[in-house]
Amino acid sequence: MKARVHVTLKHGVLDPQGKAIAGALASLGFGGVEDVRQGKYLELELAETDAAKAQAAVKAMCEKLLANTVIENYSIELV
Amino acid sequence: MKARVHVTLKHGVLDPQGKAIAGALASLGFGGVEDVRQGKYLELELAETDAAKAQAAVKAMCEKLLANTVIENYSIELV
């Protein structure tokens, strides 16, 4: 079973990396980019075949390691 | 208009960051994680309202800046 995890900065948390990308796009001539936010995307290959157990396991992984829940949100999608 | 861009390493390209995460998960006691691949996730806020033009613009941004197309794939989703 595969899990896709998105880790994004919470609303209101400054994103200097995103700002740098927006600046670079502007200097390359791409106008009309109002904002860029960068997050992380993880694909996990799990041995677990039960969807509920996999969801619970990945949630625990996010809470403990993959996301800093003080400043980041995460979302889990099983495929 | 908002664009969501996923940038992932091509199949066969080594992903040391993913391997490090897999190792860290294992050492935290999360068994059954067979593989982890880390990618980037970008949210772009665009002034453009025409979907076709926005798609073309984001594709050009990916080719020029956001993705290294030698080793990375990208996918674009407009919302």
TrEMBL record, chains A, B:
Subcellular location: Cytoplasm
GO molecular function, one term: phosphoribosylformylglycinamidine synthase activity
GO biological process per UniProt: 'de novo' IMP biosynthetic process
Keywords, in A-Z order: ATP-binding, Cytoplasm, Ligase, Nucleotide-binding, Purine biosynthesis
Gene3D superfamilies: Phosphoribosylformylglycinamidine synthase subunit PurS
Lyase keyword on record: no
EC number(s) on file: 6.3.5.3
Pathway assigned in UniProt: Purine metabolism; IMP biosynthesis via de novo pathway; 5-amino-1-(5-phospho-D-ribosyl)imidazole from N(2)-formyl-N(1)-(5-phospho-D-ribosyl)glycinamide: step 1/2
Cellular component terms (Gene Ontology): cytoplasm
InterPro entries registered for this protein in UniProt: PurS (IPR003850), PurS-like_sf (IPR036604)
This protein's record includes keyword Magnesium: no
Pfam families (alphabetical): PurS (PF02700)
Reactions catalysed according to its record: N(2)-formyl-N(1)-(5-phospho-beta-D-ribosyl)glycinamide + L-glutamine + ATP + H2O = 2-formamido-N(1)-(5-O-phospho-beta-D-ribosyl)acetamidine + L-glutamate + ADP + phosphate + H(+)
TM region(s), chain numbering: none
Family of the protein in this entry: Belongs to the PurS family.
Cross-referenced NCBIfam families: phosphoribosylformylglycinamidine synthase subunit PurS, PRK05974.1
Quaternary structure and interacting proteins, as annotated: Part of the FGAM synthase complex composed of 1 PurL, 1 PurQ and 2 PurS subunits.
Cited PANTHER family: PHOSPHORIBOSYLFORMYLGLYCINAMIDINE SYNTHASE SUBUNIT PURS (PTHR34696)
Stated role: Part of the phosphoribosylformylglycinamidine synthase complex involved in the purines biosynthetic pathway. Catalyzes the ATP-dependent conversion of formylglycinamide ribonucleotide (FGAR) and glutamine to yield formylglycinamidine ribonucleotide (FGAM) and glutamate. The FGAM synthase complex is composed of three subunits. PurQ produces an ammonia molecule by converting glutamine to glutamate. PurL transfers the ammonia molecule to FGAR to form FGAM in an ATP-dependent manner.
The protein's name: Phosphoribosylformylglycinamidine synthase subunit PurS
